[in-house]
Specification:
single chain; mainly alpha; Arc Repressor Mutant, subunit A; two-stranded antiparallel sheet; 7 helices; 57% helix; globular
Length: 147
């Protein structure tokens, strides 16, 4: 199982906006450059994020994109949901009618537990958390000394 490129890039773009939160709109071309994402692809991702109400675009000479809520109020789960829908490891976890073995299948229990754990991490991690992690990693890498 892999998180899609769309969700990975969307999360990076949202982190970029969170890092600039409160400083006004951010141009997509600047996000694309900093995050090394195709501008065309980023535009499609931001359209989905905008439709989900996570970002808004502002027109004009001082236009660009901004978060629609504070970074502390946007979870990685919301980003995933906006870009890919719900995260389902196996169909039988969400649809009991999918398989006749559902009532006695012990592997389904494992997929269900794993799904709950992943959901918990995604639901409890906000953009504010990612900003803090980003700043900490930058401080560590800035203080490293190379010979």
């Amino acid at each position: 199982m892999q998180i899609s490129t769309k969700v990975r890039y969307g999360t990076r773009a949202m982190l970029d906006l969170a890092l600039h939160y409160g400083n006004g709109p951010v141009l997509l071309k600047d996000i694309a450059r900093r995050q090394e994402i195709s501008l065309k692809y980023l535009d499609r991702i931001c359209s989905s994020l905008k439709a989900a109400g996570l970002v808004k675009s502002l027109r004009g000479s001082k236009g660009g994109y901004v978060l629609n809520k504070p970074p502390s109020k946007i979870t990685i789960s919301q980003i995933n949901e906006a870009l890919e829908g719900s995260l389902v490891l196996v169909e039988c976890v969400n649809n009991k009618n999918f398989c006749p073995r559902v009532n006695f299948c012990v592997t389904r229990d494992i997929w269900q537990e794993l799904g709950k754990t992943m959901d918990s991490v995604l639901e409890n991690t906000t953009l504010e958390d990612l900003v803090a992690r980003d700043r900490k990693k930058r401080r560590i890498s800035d203080s490293m000394y190379y010979i």
